[in-house]
């Protein structure tokens, strides 16, 4: 049985006994960690930046290529600098203090490494990095609290977080508070505009009335209905059946568009069409995304086992999860907003609160903790910026970088002491960037603090299929 000692009592071990048992040289360990992080970071960011370049769907200019190459090199320097700094401060603090304590075992070296590394990265990317690591760190802290019986898991907790935060964000959206100082939209509001539609924006009424009136007059005019273009002398063939079906579908859509629309509603055409069109469009988008992801993830199986791969890609119940969530959210939000406009006779930004809270129930079909926490942090960031703009909240210099460093320290602390509480995807990321070094650090001395660290490590290694083997580049490390 492992003897448990107070976490305030330091652990007296050397660097080679804990931090780098694969080599007795601190210098070799630091150089090896940096070189491996450099290679893996370059691979990662080359893929990321090239995909971003391809997604622009245009031939890149010389300036685009120059900017892409510069971004790859700068981001690579940032991430590899974190690996170098972590290894450097891990050994340096031990030499200065003569031992390891609960802070210097991982958290403090990670924090100090992040302070220097984040200064290398482009300022435009610092906020994105902060939001990501804060997202993962929040989940990690919650898992740590649950493992200590300090809190209990909340049923549908992610749905609750998502619904409340979306209600606040959509209220901002309807109030017209989604513009930055330079007149551009925050990326979150661009997503909201795509999901719930642009008509829920503030002061959209004037832009929709004319198109609605024109369409109703044009549709109800028998001379301009376009019905003659569908006439055909073709006999009753498959083509004739298809054209008749399309004509009936077109007439049905026209009838639905011309149904009742309340004067307070900012959208063109009828409320029924507005609701069904939004739900149907987003259902199709969600289904398409899921099928594309399944195809990419099972790309190799399409060649080795085509039949099994097709069944995995197409005939899966999970394929409908994202589609039902997106379609349900858009349809319910639009429907509740229209209902409230009819009930009150006016359009109010505060209609977004009950509409989003009810629409958020659809998140039960796709209860992703990562998505819920990302929305929460985006809401907090946007609210903080609005508070600064109105003079309600003080602007704290360097707060974004401090939050990034603190979150990174929490994640590295959990990776060393409590890996079972860390998100598995982040563990795999650390394993890749460190070339296996994160798994090979000797955690046996840490068991004295009573966290069952080695037991947690074995469970995580098994669950993620990661091997405790140090890879090496250029002779640094061992096979």
TrEMBL record:
GO cellular component: a single term: endomembrane system
The entry's keywords: Membrane, Transmembrane, Transmembrane helix
Top-level division of the source organism's lineage: Eukaryota
Bilayer topology term: Multi-pass membrane protein
Transmembrane residue ranges: 29-55, 76-96, 102-120, 157-173, 271-293
Pfam short name (any one): TMEM135_C_rich
Cellular location(s): Endomembrane system
Protein name (record): Transmembrane protein 135 N-terminal domain-containing protein
Lineage summary: Eukaryota, Metazoa, Ecdysozoa, Arthropoda, Hexapoda
């Amino acid at each position: 049985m492992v003897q448990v000692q107070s976490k305030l009592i330091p652990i007296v071990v050397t660097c080679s006994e804990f931090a780098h048992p694969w080599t007795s040289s601190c210098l070799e360990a630091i150089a090896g960690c940096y070189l491996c992080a450099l290679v893996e970071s370059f691979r990662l960011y080359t893929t990321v930046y090239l995909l971003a370049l391809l997604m622009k769907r245009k031939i890149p200019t010389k300036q685009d290529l120059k900017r892409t190459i510069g971004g790859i090199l700068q981001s690579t320097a940032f991430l590899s600098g974190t690996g170098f700094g972590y290894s450097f401060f891990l050994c340096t603090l031990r030499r200065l203090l003569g031992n390891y304590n609960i802070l210097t075992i991982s958290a403090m070296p990670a924090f100090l490494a992040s302070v220097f590394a984040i200064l290398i990265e482009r300022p435009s990317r610092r906020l994105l990095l902060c939001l990501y690591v804060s997202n993962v760190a929040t989940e990690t802290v919650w898992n740590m609290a649950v493992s200590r019986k300090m809190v209990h898991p909340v049923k549908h907790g992610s749905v609750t977080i998502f619904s409340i935060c979306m209600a606040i964000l959509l209220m901002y959206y309807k109030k017209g508070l989604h513009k930055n100082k330079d007149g551009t939209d925050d990326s979150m509001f661009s997503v909201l505009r795509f999901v719930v539609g642009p008509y829920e924006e503030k002061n959209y009424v004037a832009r929709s009335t004319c198109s609605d009136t024109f369409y109703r007059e044009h549709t109800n005019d028998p001379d301009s209905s376009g019905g003659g273009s569908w006439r055909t002398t073709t006999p009753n063939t498959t083509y004739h059946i298809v054209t008749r079906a399309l004509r009936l579908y077109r007439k049905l859509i026209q009838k639905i568009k011309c149904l009742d629309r309340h004067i307070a509603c900012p959208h063109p055409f009828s409320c029924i069409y507005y609701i069904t069109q939004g739900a149907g469009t987003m259902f199709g988008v969600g289904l398409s995304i899921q099928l594309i992801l399944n195809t990419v993830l099972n790309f190799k199986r399409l060649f080795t086992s085509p039949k099994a791969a097709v069944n995995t890609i197409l005939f899966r119940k999970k394929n409908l999860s994202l589609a039902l969530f997106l379609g349900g959210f858009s349809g319910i939000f639009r429907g509740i907003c229209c209902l409230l406009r009819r009930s009150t006779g006016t359009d109010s930004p505060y209609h977004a609160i009950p509409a989003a809270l009810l629409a958020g129930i659809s998140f039960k079909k796709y209860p992703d903790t990562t998505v819920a926490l990302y929305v929460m942090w985006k809401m907090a960031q946007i609210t903080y910026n609005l508070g600064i703009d109105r003079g309600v909240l003080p602007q704290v210099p360097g707060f974004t970088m401090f939050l990034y460093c603190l979150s990174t320290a929490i994640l590295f602390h959990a990776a060393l002491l409590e890996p079972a509480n860390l998100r598995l995807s982040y563990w795999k990321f650390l394993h890749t960037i460190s070339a296996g070094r994160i798994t090979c650090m000797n955690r046996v001395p840490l068991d004295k603090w009573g966290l069952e660290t080695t037991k947690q490590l074995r469970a995580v290694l098994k669950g993620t299929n990661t091997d405790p083997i140090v890879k090496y580049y250029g002779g640094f490390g061992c096979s």
